[in-house]
């Protein structure tokens, strides 16, 4: 049994709820399709949205727990002074990428709202789907920064077991 405390963060709950919703929607659609030869119209549109939400929420959880894919070999063999420089570089690159995503995602969401664009499947306002892009990107930046501060203070990561 793990000695790590449970992770009750909003994005972890959001990812869990999105995954549950995808499963329920997909299962419901399969059952209806096989019993009635019809299908729900909303399943693909909602499933794609929820999958994107799940991806960004999961990325925020991974950013906080330092579990993103990275080259760990370099970290294991660097001296402590050089390791801190590497942490700064990793954080700067990550924040830069997610900052651009947040910026352009916010512009995109505002344009969708201003243009009153509707989704092709259900005709819902597109901004309802798109607004999550800058929000979740900002959450990833926040969690990366928390992780960066912990690493700079010397807090050791819990051992991650990589299955292959």
Automatic annotation (TrEMBL):
Residues 22-153 form the Tripartite ATP-independent periplasmic transporters DctQ component domain. The complex comprises the extracytoplasmic solute receptor protein and the two transmembrane proteins. This is TRAP transporter small permease protein. Belongs to the TRAP transporter small permease family. It is a multi-pass membrane protein. The chain crosses the membrane at residues 12-34, 46-64, 85-107, 127-145. It comes from the Bacteria. It is found in: Cell inner membrane. It comes from Marinobacter salexigens. Part of the tripartite ATP-independent periplasmic (TRAP) transport system. InterPro entries: DctQ (IPR055348), TRAP_DctQ (IPR007387). Keywords: Cell inner membrane, Cell membrane, Membrane, Transmembrane, Transmembrane helix, Transport.
């Amino acid at each position: 049994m793990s000695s790590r405390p449970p992770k009750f963060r909003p994005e972890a709950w959001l990812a869990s709820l999105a995954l549950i919703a995808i499963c329920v929607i997909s299962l419901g659609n399969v059952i209806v399709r096989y019993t009635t030869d019809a299908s729900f119209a909303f399943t693909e549109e909602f499933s794609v949205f929820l999958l994107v939400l799940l991806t960004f929420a999961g990325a925020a959880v991974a950013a906080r727990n330092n579990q993103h894919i990275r080259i760990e070999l370099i970290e294991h063999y660097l001296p402590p002074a050089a390791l801190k420089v590497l942490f700064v570089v990793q954080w700067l690159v990550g924040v830069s990428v997610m900052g651009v995503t947040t910026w352009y995602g916010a512009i995109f969401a505002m344009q969708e709202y201003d243009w009153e664009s509707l989704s092709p499947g259900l005709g819902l306002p597109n901004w309802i789907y798109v607004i999550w892009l800058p929000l979740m990107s900002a959450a990833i930046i926040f969690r990366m920064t928390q992780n960066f501060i912990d690493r700079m203070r010397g807090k050791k990561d819990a051992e991650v077991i990589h299955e292959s």
